[in-house]
Amino acid sequence: GTMKTTAMILLIIMAAVFLNFIMGGIGLTGKINAYVTGLKLSKYELLLAIVIFYVILGCFMETLSIMVTTLPVITPLMVQAGFDPVWFGTIVIVLISSLVLILASGIFLTYEFITSRKSAVGYATSLAEIIARNASTFIEFDRPLEVRDDMLDALKKSPGIIAAVIYTADKKVFAKYVREDHKSDYVVPTPEADGTHFKPDRLVVVTEVVSKKKRMGTLLLEADFQAEAKRFRGYGWIVFFVHLAGIPAAILLANRLQRIVSNPVLALARTARQVAAAKKYSLRAQKSSEDEVG
């Protein structure tokens, strides 16, 4: 498994190097740089544009592929704009990692949305079947008050149910229940075909009322998604605050580690360039700590 993963990573890197070589050979990299420079964006406008670019790209590509294919083109632009390359690299890594987390969170929220809808459908369908089974006798003997009381007992304990209407075989209203907050504006609908029907703000379940294998009428039950929406919003806020706290924390930690790890390496690289340029072989990099890096 490790060998396979390593081979895939190396293949991605080789393909990216080849792609960058081709782009440089045909002058595409220079044209992109010239085009972006011609837009005359400020450094922070350019940074915002790059962030949006990575957000869009992160929806279709994985982390390593994004980095190896875009950094050779984007890094010169950011350095030319005045950004420190190490700082920009830190921002890119944090940003791409955050995109991966956002994508995972989006998948989690989508799964929760689908399962909560299925759960709501299952609950509403089971409740409708129970009420329809109990209502068959009352319709047969023309006792609407009893069936209404039976529905009230069942539905008052289910706050997600907006209304329930029982129709006779000739589509006349036999009994109904409407939740208190909808009594003033509720209009009894015409029953649709048996089954579940999704509306913009509610779920409608239509089922038959049967007695002795004979259809006595129809039950229509309407439910909202308030409980599911409340839970979904709660999960959404949790994801939002985790990212809101995690991204700045990651940037601060990266800046701290940059001072410990990157700065001594960069100082050594600057000293090496000075030695090569000025031929001053007596220059030495300044020692910053007693560990392997310093």
Set out the fold topology.
Elements: H1 2-25, H2 28-38, H3 43-57, H4 63-81, H5 85-140, H6 144-155, E1 161-168, E2 173-178, E3 195-198, E4 202-211, E5 214-224, H7 226-278
Antiparallel strand pairs: 1-2, 1-5, 3-4, 4-5
Give a verbal description of the structure:
This protein is an alpha+beta fold. 65% of the residues lie in helices and 13% in strands. It is built from 7 helices and 5 strands, in the order ααααααβββββα. It has helices spanning 2-25, 28-38, 43-57, 63-81, 85-140, 144-155, 226-278; strands at 161-168, 173-178, 195-198, 202-211, 214-224. The protein has a 5-stranded antiparallel β-sheet. Strand 3 (195-198) and strand 4 form a beta hairpin. The radius of gyration is 33 Å and the shape is elongated. The chain starts with a helix and ends in a 16-residue tail after the last helix. The relative contact order is 0.08.
Provide tags for this entry:
single chain; 294 residues; alpha+beta; 13% strand
- Please state the structural category: alpha+beta
Main β-sheet description: 5 strands, antiparallel
C-alpha Rg (nearest Å): 33 Å
Adjacency order of strands in the biggest sheet: 2-1-5-4-3
What is the mean predicted local confidence, pLDDT?
Answer: 78
Report low-confidence residues grouped into runs of 5 or more. Answer: none
Query: Which range best describes the helical content: under 10%, 10-25%, 25-40%, 40-55%, 55-70% or over 70%?
Result: 55-70%
Summarize the helix and strand pattern as letters.
Answer: HHHHHHEEEEEH
The tally of beta strands, per DSSP, is: 5
Strand content: 5-15%
User: Globular, elongated, flat, extended or rod-shaped: what is the shape?
Assistant: elongated
Q: What is the terminal-to-terminal distance?
A: 36 Å
The number of helical elements comes to: 7
